[in-house]
Amino acid sequence: MCELVGATIGQYIIQSRLARGGMSDVYLACDMEKDKRVAIKLVHHRDEENCKRFRREVRAVAHLHHEHILPILDCGEYGPWYYMVTPYIEHGTLHERLAKGPLSLEEAGDILSQLAGALQCAHDHGVVHRDIKPSNVLLQDGKHVYLADFGLVKGIKEDHTVTQTGYIVGTPEYMAPELVDQPATVSSDVYALGVLLYQMTTGRVPFKGNTPVATVWKHLRDEPESPSKLNPVVTSRVERVILRALAKEPWQRLQTTCELAQAFHHALTSSDSMNATLAVDACRPLVSRLSTPPAAPKRRRQLFLGAVAALLVGMLYVGPVLLISFTSSIQGEHAGLLDAGITVRSVPTSTPTATPTSKTLSPSSPKQANPIDKEKKQGHDNSHGYDNHDHQKGKQNY
User: Fold this and answer.
1) How many whole angstroms separate alpha carbon 133 and alpha carbon 172?
2) CA distance linking residue 208 with residue 190, whole number of Å
3) Among candidate residues 255, 167, 253, the one with its CA nearest the CA of residue 216
């Protein structure tokens, strides 16, 4: 499409090509009415699939108004092409910036906050980006950033996840593990933003294979290398937040992009190591904390941990039950002796005991009167622990 250089599309004169993508080309143009430079994205009509994505992008961005989402200034058709006009951002992309090395933690946090706000706006309007990566982050002046290229945007409630040719949509280095067989969600955007945060703080992506398939396999199987090993400036508090965003299971991650940005900010500003861990959960809304996480896939490690947990719980519960049963049996025998009229006493070793005679009476035989028995009839019954007066009073109350 180099023949477009010098062409006039409405009020725009195309000056040069800025970039070539998988489904479109981007040109630098001059807006003759406003006398300023703009960027024009063009897609040819012959590519039906790309045209569908292009129209979906135009419809989606037209409803997204956020200071960190690259706005659409104009759109239409020109001959065999669809076109879309956006502001021209002069300072390049985050990809070009990261080619020079990792960012400082403060700079990474600033960019993260801006992107998180842009993505939260998209999610609140029911769409996921699906293509978060440095080349789609534009730097206006080194500080203000724009999230661009919503060409792969998808409605959260849409059920299709692959193209008609059967290929998974997205950039392998930034794809969440569940995208292999599940639809894109807010959580998959959180994962991609976590990959970008890892890259901003370490200078490299967490997983990189020789082929796209190998890269996706690493997302599924491998654990990312600790960011602090790649960049000593990364503190343990910051590292915990980054790795939380890269959890394999969606329910284990921070649930929104804003939660991720807030947790990272707390990790940078917390005065002690415990605050960072607490900050991650404190940023989570109450509803998400109370909700039950979905069941995780059946894995050997999870089954093993579950068996160990069941064993420990069993030990905690069975032990006290056995002890209670044993104690109850002893108490039952003691109660049986009391019902039979036999008093159990503890006799001090220093007190001499009376020698039993052959005239010892059974509990049912009549007893000889003695001062002690007489005292029992008049007042206290030591074998049952309360006096006859109180017993009679209790009967009157009934």
Assistant:
1) 10
2) 19
3) 167
Give 145-178 pLDDT, tens digit per residue: 999 988 787 777 665 444 444 456 789 999 999 9
Distance separating alpha carbons of residues 392 and 377, to the nearest angstrom: 13
User: Which helix or strand (DSSP H or E) is residue 307 part of?
Assistant: helix 300-339
Catalytic, out of 47, 74, 110, 131: 131
Beta strands in the chain (DSSP E): 8-9, 12-20, 25-31, 36-44, 74-78, 81-87, 127-128, 137-139, 145-147, 154-155, 380-381, 386-387
Query: 94 and 197 in contact (C-beta within 8 Å)?
Result: no
Q: Identify any residues that bridge with 38 across adjacent strands, giving them in sequence order.
A: 29, 87
The values of phi and psi at residue 85, to 5°, are -105, 130
* 8 Å CB contact between 146 and 137: yes
pLDDT per residue as tens digits for the range 324-334 = 454 455 455 44
The tokens describing 214, both together, are: 């190998």
Count the residues in the chain: 398
Q: To 5 degrees, how large is the angle CA 295–CA 299–CA 303? A: 85
Per-residue confidence (pLDDT) for residue 374, from 0 to 100: 47
Nearest alpha-carbon partner for 119 in 141, 100, 99, 145: 145
List the structure tokens of 119: 């993505």
Q: Which residues contact 47 (CB under 8 A, 6 or more apart)?
A: 23
In whole angstroms, what is the distance from residue 353 CA to residue 161 CA? Answer: 92
In order of start, what are the domains of the chain with their CATH numbers?
A: 2-87 (3.30.200.20), 94-288 (1.10.510.10)
pLDDT of residue 344: 39
Whether the per-residue pLDDT at 358 is higher than 90: the answer is no
Neighbour-count burial of 306, counting CB atoms closer than 10 A to its CB (0-12 exposed, 13-18 middle, 19+ buried): exposed
- DSSP-derived 3-state class of residue 311: helix
Dist. CA 31–CA 11, nearest whole Å: 6
Q: Tell me the backbone φ, ψ of residue 369, rounded to 5 degrees.
A: -70, 135
124 catalytic residue (yes or no): no
Phi, psi (deg, nearest 5) at residue 216: -60, -40
